[in-house]
Design goal:
Blueprint lengths: L7 E7 L5 H12 L3 E5 H8 L9 H15 L3 E6 L3 H14 L3 E7 L3 H8 L10 H7 L13
Parallel strand pairs: 1-3, 1-4, 2-3
Helix pairs in contact: 3-4
């Protein structure tokens, strides 16, 4: 088991520019220092400096970081696109193993809206619309859900 009955795990997924980071920041403001936010983009591109591909190291590191924080008594928000093909098995295993309450949320925003939001985003110069199109997944829900 991971964490305790008192720890909370929230998985917040969705396409680029769906509002995940904004919601994460609002939760951090509301809940304070007891909430750890694990952003896949940071783990993948800053910590590991790797591309997002199947079986990349960031998948295991995200799981390990979440487990470490939950075991230390922190609430955890895992936030990113986290497409179900690459990250689904890890997220479902983490959910199964967590002793406390776990909730999964998927922010469904259509492609035209993600492009519109991207133009006002601080990462506008990091990737273009065609790259966003290659990432976009309509209603990328996890294949199996576990209620807690």
């Amino acid at each position: 088991m991971t964490g305790t009955a008192e720890t909370r795990l929230v998985v917040l997924r969705g396409n680029a520019a769906a509002g995940k980071s904004t919601i994460g920041g609002l939760l951090r403001d509301e809940l304070g220092p007891g909430l750890d936010i694990i952003e896949q983009d940071h783990v993948r591109s800053i910590v590991l400096r790797e591309d997002d591909r199947p079986d990349s190291a960031n998948i295991g590191l995200i799981s390990s970081m979440a487990r470490f924080c939950l075991d230390a008594g922190f609430d955890v928000l895992v936030e990113a696109i986290l497409d179900s093909d690459r990250y689904g098995a890890m997220l479902l295993e983490l959910t199964r193993d967590h002793a406390g309450v776990t909730r999964h949320f998927y922010l469904e925003v259509n492609f035209a809206e993600t492009v519109s939001r991207h133009t006002t985003h601080d990462k506008t110069s990091e990737f273009d619309i065609e790259r966003m199109r290659s990432w976009y997944r309509h209603r990328d829900l996890l294949a199996t859900s576990i209620r807690r």
